[in-house]
Amino acid sequence: MIFIDTANHISALAAKMAKPHVIAAYPITPQTTIVERLAEYVESGQLNADFIRVESEHSAMAACIGASAMGARTFTATASHGLLLMHEMLHWAGLARLPVVMVNVNRAIGPGWNIWSDLNDSLSQRDTGWIQFYASSNQEVFDNIIQAYKIGESEEVMLPVMISYDGFTLSHTSMPVEVPEQSKIDEFLPPFKPAWKIDVENPITHGNIVPPEPYMEIRYSMQRAMERAKKIIEEVGEEWGKKFGREYDLIQEYKCDDADYVMVTMGAISAEARFAVDELRKRGEKVGLVNLRTFRPFPYEKLKYEKMIVIDRNVSPGLGGVVYHEMKKTGKDLYGFIAGLGGVDVSYKDFERIYELAKRGKEGWYPLEVK
Amino acid sequence: MVSFRGEIVAIKDLPLDEYVLKGHAACPGCPITIALRIALKALGKKTILVIPACCTAVIEALYPKTAFNVPILNIAFEASAAGASGVASALKMLQQKDITPVVWAGDGGSYDIGLQALSGALERGTNFIYVCYNNQMYSNTGIQRSGATPYGAWTTTTWTGKKERQKELAEIVMAHHIPYIATATIAYPEDLFNKMKKAKEIKGSRYIEILAPCPPGWRFDMSKTVEMSKLAVETGAWVLYEVVNGKMEFNGYSKRILEGKERKPVEEWLKMQGRFRHLKEEELAKIKEMLDEKWKEYKKLYSSETSPDK
Amino acid sequence: MKTAISYPTVGAMGKTGTWRVFRPSLDREKCIKCWRCWIFCPDSAISRDEYPVIDYEYCKGCGVCANECPVNAIEMGREEK
User: Fold this and answer.
1) Same domain, yes or no: A184 and A256
2) Whole-structure pTM over 0.95, yes or no?
3) Is the pLDDT of residue C36 over 60?
4) For B213-237, what is each residue's pLDDT tens digit?
5) Total domain count for chain C?
6) B contact chains, 3+ CB pairs < 8 A
7) Before A297, cis peptide (omega within 30)?
8) Which residue of B lies nearest to C17 if distances are taken between CA atoms?
């Protein structure tokens, strides 16, 4: 069935179809319409879940951790400062290996208050042990959320999953989305089987003091799970393709085969970059596009093109674009651009200019300072 | 002996079950494990403890072993009430309604860093018991001042004695209109047991605060933990009461004080503790004045609760 | 999958009786079986049999039992190693 709706309403719908037992969330712009819709689903009886209207995002994540540790499937959603407030608990969910699924609507960080999109909020959660997906369309938002449960809850993974997408550009923009029947989703997504749980019949203690050596083993186990997640993400993406006609990988490549230059982007700007590729191709430029679907685990093995133009809608002050620097591991020629912070529009025209600048060997803050 | 209300009134009648195993990591003479032993005898096997950073998290001992025979979810310092909200929701959704989620947190995690999560959970009517064991400082990190540290007390962050009064968390909790609130000490194990038992039978948010005199933190001999608790009640430095559906009732020795029994001089309690050794005359006078003022308030509450038109 | 899961163990922190400096000993003649020593033991190291039984493997020697005994049936003596 085709739904025409905003990414936020599509998120709520996807969450509902994944049948979580417990939802704990706190409102924040531009995420609010997700929690409003979920509250409506729960109160009208369309979704049999307990919705905890927590008093902060920190508590939202803590409640999801508590519920997930009991063996319940959980969902939450946040944005920007809300995500930053959760930071401590994100680490906790990660190391506890609880497959909580969360939507983060990307929004810039203050001061001053800015409600428009950039990716600094979610990229600041880089090392929390969360799998991170980025979506560039409302369809991807839906598909990623359902797949997130299957990936996170895989016994080879057991990690929490964050699905990020740009505030307003996607969150409040209606697009057509193909939504499968509930029965097909149920076939695809089996019930959550926790790797461990709090149970009065088997009174374990989770999370007491861990000495250095086993602590390092626990960290190593998490690293291994992240590595295995690459394979699981591919498998689940392939299965999704077979069932629903849209196949997914860690990255999405567009017209890369014969490309001399490949642009690398993440999030909603990928859609604009794709249009720029078409325009540039019309002019005979051999250019392609890689949209990073996953940021964690980072798919560096798949970024095999000789010349890559990386457009970061984020910045790590004192270093530069986060994705650009992560990509140095590929050993390829990279041209880094920082663009679109705090919701600055990055149109296909900008991508065309960035491409021309990169071809001349330049990089930097677009359009402020490009050398 | 069992009273007509089904309350246990003699120590010998308390259950033999032990959920705090021998060989845990508490300091000798620790009040927390005494309180936990009594509380878990009342709560029983079908209890889930949610524990933030605090002494109890250390008492559990080191991975891969634990000194507790009930399941425990450890969680970040400020997050226990929120974590327990998740546990309570999951219990409801997974049809495990005979299990009691219990937060077991110190005063730092309750009065200070965890106050927001506690208030939120109480306001939502979370179906859980929240226990604050109050040792009046951050003991786990090495005796630092907390919002529960009394005026005049030495800590490692108040070298010349705390200059401010402690706040009254139970009174803040009262403003949340929850069905059950109680204060207790380990000195009266039957009272603590009965309050736990009573809390277990009530649905909704329940709050119990237990005074926990800490030998290394308060600077007294480790054999005096129970005596220190008892003296706190007898001098009025700690008060025993229950608030059931908004109705306040003083208990035990505290009730007897309100009925006319004289409070022992608070100096008796203070002089047993090294943390008050430096007190000047005027500081002692101020402590006594504040205590008198507090008991005037209690007296007023007591009279209004026991007045015939109530 | 490895996370910080711990299992209930008697002696999780080892034989804590080795921490003891003063050793409680019970005089059965004096004991009135009020069980105050049992309920107030912070270490669950006193169990109930005909008389209180002190588990010296785990008793940390805090002396709460002796302090709380209403008939002075428990005496604390320096531990001899």
Assistant:
1) no
2) yes
3) yes
4) 999 999 999 999 999 999 999 999 9
5) 1
6) A, C
7) yes
8) B23
Q: In 3D, which of A246, A230, A189 has the Cα closest to residue A14? A: A189
Residue with tokens 């007190």: B279
* CB contact at 8 A, A83 and A104: yes
Mutation to test the A interface, candidates B43, B50, B59, B87, most A Cβ within 10 Å: B87
Residue of A59, A64, A89 best to disrupt the B interface, most CBs of B under 10 A: A59
* Residue A278 reports pLDDT greater than 80: yes
B98 touches chain A (CB under 8 A): no
Chain C neighbours (≥3 Cβ pairs under 8 A) are A, B
pLDDT score recorded for residue B308:
62
Tell me if ipTM is over 0.95.
yes
Reference C1, options A96, B118, B25; nearest CA is A96
Last residue of a domain, one of A244, A272, A299: A244
CATH fold of the domain at B11-306:
Rossmann fold (3.40.50)
Q: What is the dihedral angle through the alpha carbons of A271, A272, A273, A277, rounded to the nearest 10 degrees?
A: 100
Q: Are residues A117 and A99 in the same domain?
A: yes
CA separation for the pair A364, A336 (Å, rounded): 6
The chain-wide mean pLDDT, for chain C, equals: 97
First to last CA, chain A: 49
Note whether B85 contacts A92, CB cutoff 8 Å: no
Q: Which helix (H) or strand (E) holds A336?
A: strand A333-338
Q: Are A95 and A222 in contact (CB under 8 A)?
A: yes
Residue of chain B whose alpha carbon sits nearest to that of C55: B22
Q: Which of A244, A276, A306 is the last residue of a domain?
A: A244
Give B118's contacts (C-beta < 8 A, 6+ positions apart): B80, B81, B110, B130, B173
Are A292 and A355 within one domain? Answer: yes
Q: How far is CA A214 from CA A92, A205, A352, B62, C10, in A?
A: 17, 16, 51, 11, 21
Q: Does residue B165 sit in helix, strand or coil? A: coil
What is the total count of domains within chain A? Answer: 2
CATH of the domain at A341: 3.40.50.920
- Which DSSP string do the residues of B264-280 spell out, in sequence order? PPHHHHHTT-GGGTT--
Q: What is the pLDDT of residues B76-115, one digit of tens each?
A: 999 999 999 999 999 999 999 899 999 999 999 999 999 9
* Residues A237, A261 within the same domain: no
Q: Which domain holds residue A14?
A: 2-244
Report DSSP letters for B71-139, one per residue: -EEE--TT-HHHHHHHHHHHHHHTT-TTPEEEEEEEHIIIIITTHHHHHHHHHTT-SEEEEEEE-SSBT
- Rounded to an integer, what distance in angstroms lies between the CA atom of residue B221 and that of residue B196? 28
Q: Do A24 and B66 touch (CB under 8 A)?
A: no
